[in-house]
Amino acid sequence: MIPTHIEHIGIAVKNLDDSINYYEKVLGLKCYKVEEVKDQKVKTAFFQVGQTKIELLESTDPEGPIGKFIEKRGEGLHHLAFAVNGIEDSLKQVEEKGVRLIDKTPRKGAEGLDIAFLHPKSTFGTLTEFCEKKS
Ligand code: ZN
């Protein structure tokens, strides 16, 4: 199990429109999609930067994971997502090496990816996501 690249970087923001504005007007990137992921109580906005995406996350519910994160730690870097080949097997392999998993089996994330999170207590503080494009 070796990640192939950084698929995206997740950033928690309070206001999607304001932050989209920054990435577009200041950095000159183009938001190519806004998508709500009801399951995770977030609205997401995506930017492509080379092979990697920036995923902005605005909470749609203060009790959701991003709502709680911002309440506790404020806006900013939220998670790092590695693209892997064979997500189920990758999860099994890191679990065997002692990593605590948040998701034992993959679920559907934004962009039609299969995703699963590793617990930040097992990854030196960085909430880590594995994702795989199936199809
Ligand atoms: Zn993500």
Quick description:
It contains 3 helices and 8 strands; from the N terminus they run E-H-E-E-E-H-E-H-E-E-E. The chain is α+β, with helices and mostly antiparallel strands and about 140 residues long.
Walk me through this protein's architecture.
With 135 residues, the protein is an alpha+beta fold. The protein has one domain: 2,3-Dihydroxybiphenyl 1,2-Dioxygenase, domain 1 (Roll). 22% of the residues lie in helices and 39% in strands. The chain contains three helices and eight strands; from the N terminus they run βαβββαβαβββ. The chain has an eight-stranded mixed sheet with strand order 2-3-4-1-5-8-7-6. It is globular, with a radius of gyration of 15 Å. The mean pLDDT is 95. The site of zinc ion (ZN) has 6 residues, from β1 and β5.
Classify the oligomer: single chain
SSE string, helices as H and strands as E: EHEEEHEHEEE
Span between termini: 20 Å
Helix content: 10-25%
CATH class: Alpha Beta
Low-pLDDT segments: none
What's the β-strand tally?
Answer: 8
